[in-house]
Here is the input.
Amino acid sequence: MQKVQKTKKSRSLAEKINVMRASVMGANDGILSVAGIVIGVAGAKSNSYAIFLAGIAGMLAGTISMAMGEWVSVSTQRDSERRAIEKESAALDGHYDDEFDFIKNKYQGTGISEELALKATQEMMSDDPLDVAVRERFGFNPKEHTSAIAAAMASMISFPTGSILPLVSITFFPENIRIIATVIAVVIALSITGYTAAALGNADRTKAVFRNVISGVLTMIVTYFIGSLFAH
Here is the structure.
């Protein structure tokens, strides 16, 4: 009973992390993509309606693209993991000793003695050999499942949520300050998403924020420059 509860807890945590990752990246892409679009159009036109329309079109296209991309990506990952589990199950049925030796040698390669590696392998394989064999040979836990639909829904919600900020900034700020106001708002938002993404991945927060902000600023500079070439 305790083992089942532990498995469910582990699965739930993996699913939550996957959804959080999709949400943060969806919001980040929404901010960056729509900011690039509206800043680029603003460089070419001063018509607020045209800028707003371009931003809405980008938001809708990006929302569908992100959601479908997450669904395809996670589904493909799960298909690959499923094939790996089937392959390992067949290997255990037909060549159990070979798989046992592979795991033992892998443990021994970490620096422990052959006797200890043998004992560890025996204990691990006695409980759930397929789980252990898949984890050691393919590097993933077969009991952890990520939901393609949950990831897609997270992106579908977070992308337009993130894109609202640059869209509202460029539309409602006065014409003489709307571009700089949008840039400032986007930089702040990208700092938040960059920090959050780094926190989820246990990475360097400062570097993540710096990379995110730089990529956003460069995107807006390039799109504004290209838009200004078509200004009339």
The two ends are 71 Å apart (CA to CA). Residues 115 and 176 are 76 Å apart (CA to CA). The chain has eight helices and no strands.
